[in-house]
């Protein structure tokens, strides 16, 4: 298992003060910044693109930026986000005919490669590519919006993926995204996740440090 990572999703931040909000969660103890990219095509919502990622880098954000592409097609955005300073880039297998090629593209551009699985996406999408991945992102809500409730069947999926990862002996991260909070993070961790994406459970709280510390304490860090 990899060291625990708390990755606030800035989708839930105040967009009018995005730079300040990003620095605030990092100063409050966040390990990564999770960057949700929505295109109103693959998912029914529109968020932000590579220019915002680049602006955060120019504003002095040095922490890993974990880009989650909820877009189709993916190739152009992979190239643009790698250029804009993304550390990892994750896409959905349903968004492209060429999963293997796009994993390779991400790596060739110097980023870590991830695959995101929607709640109903079967695990056989990991066949033949598992050893090429740096990260698997389990969606515990249907993608498109923050503030939804955690879908309990995600716990079974996390356990099943953890078994697969452990069989490889590779340092593949298992990330969980959607409805993660200080109340359920312990059960998600026990199921086998090591990376926790949380939007409203952090940004809707008045004290980001208290919110992040509560999550870390719940997994005994
Ligand atoms: O990618 C998504 C939604 O599509 C997530 O990153 C959510 O934005 C997480 O938000 P909360 O469920 O934690 O509010």
TrEMBL record:
EC number(s) on file: 5.1.3.1
An MF annotation (GO) of this entry: metal ion binding
Pathways per UniProt:
Carbohydrate degradation
The terms describing its cellular component in GO are:
cytoplasm
Cofactor(s) needed by this chain = a divalent metal cation; Co(2+); Mn(2+); Fe(2+)
Listed under GO biological process in this entry are: pentose catabolic process; pentose-phosphate shunt
Q: Where does a divalent metal cation bind?
A: 34, 36, 68, 177
According to UniProt, the reaction catalysed is: D-ribulose 5-phosphate = D-xylulose 5-phosphate
Q: Which Pfam families match?
A: Ribul_P_3_epim
Positions that bind substrate: 9, 68, 144-147, 177-179, 199-200
Q: What superkingdom heads the lineage?
A: Bacteria
Matches recorded under Gene3D superfamilies: Aldolase class I
Cofactor info, note text? Binds 1 divalent metal cation per subunit.
- Which catalytic residues are annotated? 36, 177
Q: What is this protein called?
A: Ribulose-phosphate 3-epimerase
Lineage of the organism: Bacteria, Pseudomonadati, Pseudomonadota, Gammaproteobacteria, Enterobacterales
């Amino acid at each position: 298992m990899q060291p625990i990572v708390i990755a606030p999703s800035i989708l839930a931040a105040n967009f009018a003060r995005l730079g300040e909000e990003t620095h605030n969660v990092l100063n409050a103890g966040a390990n990564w910044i999770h960057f949700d990219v929505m295109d109103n095509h693959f998912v029914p919502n529109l968020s932000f693109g590579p220019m915002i990622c680049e602006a955060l880098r120019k504003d002095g954000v040095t922490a890993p930026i974990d880009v989650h592409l909820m877009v189709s097609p993916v190739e152009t955005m992979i190239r643009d986000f790698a250029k804009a300073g993304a550390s990892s880039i994750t896409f959905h297998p349903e968004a492209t005919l060429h999963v293997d090629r796009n994993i390779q593209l991400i790596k060739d551009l110097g980023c870590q490669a991830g695959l995101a699985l929607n709640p109903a996406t079967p695990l056989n999408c990991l066949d033949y590519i598992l050893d090429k991945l740096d990260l698997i992102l389990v969606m515990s809500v249907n993608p498109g919006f923050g503030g939804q409730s955690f879908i309990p069947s995600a716990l079974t999926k996390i356990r099943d993926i953890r078994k697969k990862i452990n069989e490889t002996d590779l340092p593949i991260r298992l990330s969980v995204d959607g409805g993660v909070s200080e109340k359920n993070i312990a059960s998600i961790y026990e199921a086998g996740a090591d990376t926790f994406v949380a939007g409203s459970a952090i940004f809707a709280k008045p004290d980001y440090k208290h919110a992040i510390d509560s999550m870390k304490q719940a997994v005994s860090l």
